[in-house]
Amino acid sequence: MNGGKTPAWHLSVVPHLTVGDSPEKGTWLTLNAVHDRECPDAENTFYPFGAEKCIKYEGRDEFGGAEIEAIRSQTTSLFLIVEIGYTDMRNIRQTRTLYRRFNPLTDRFGDYLAGIRA
């Protein structure tokens, strides 16, 4: 959802999953956008203030059983890194990177601040 007050054009959202001690180290899995009637190509879509659009993703590869067990037993971490870019109404490209860590006790991703750079 475009929750800000600035309309957005040429939205790009590139998520990655990584298993390791930090988002920068470990096994990476890039997720690719899946475009269909329900979720059209976000890159070529205008997002007015307050608009909500759907974006679906799928992985090209999978993590193995040993990696999944290590995440569940908390001997390693699963991170979600999301690179977001859009063009604002001044025609200036804006970018952000979000970092989240999976909590196997809640089965949800939560904030991860240690990997954020100013």
Describe the structure.
This protein starts with 8 loop residues before the first strand and ends in a 7-residue tail after the last strand. It has one helix at residues 65-72; strands at residues 9-22, 25-34, 56-59, 77-87, 93-103, 108-111. 7% of the residues lie in helices and 46% in strands. The protein has one domain. It has 118 residues and is mostly beta strands. A six-stranded antiparallel sheet has the order 3-2-1-4-5-6.
Q: Nutshell version of this structure?
A:
With 118 residues, this protein is mostly beta strands. The protein is built from 1 helix and 6 strands.
The global form is elongated
The helix count comes to: 1
Strand order of the largest sheet: 3-2-1-4-5-6
Low-confidence stretches: none
Order of helices and strands: EEEHEEE
What is the domain total for the residues?
Answer: 1
Rounded radius of gyration (Å): 16 Å
Q: Overall mean pLDDT score?
A: 80
Biggest pleated sheet: 6 strands, antiparallel
Distance N terminus to C terminus?
24 Å
Determine the fraction of residues in helical runs and give it as a percent range: under 10%
Question: Could you outline the blueprint of secondary structure elements for this entry?
Answer:
Blueprint: E1 9-22, E2 25-34, E3 56-59, H1 65-72, E4 77-87, E5 93-103, E6 108-111
Antiparallel strand pairs: 1-2, 1-4, 2-3, 4-5, 5-6
List keywords for this structure.
118 residues, single chain, 1 helix, mainly beta
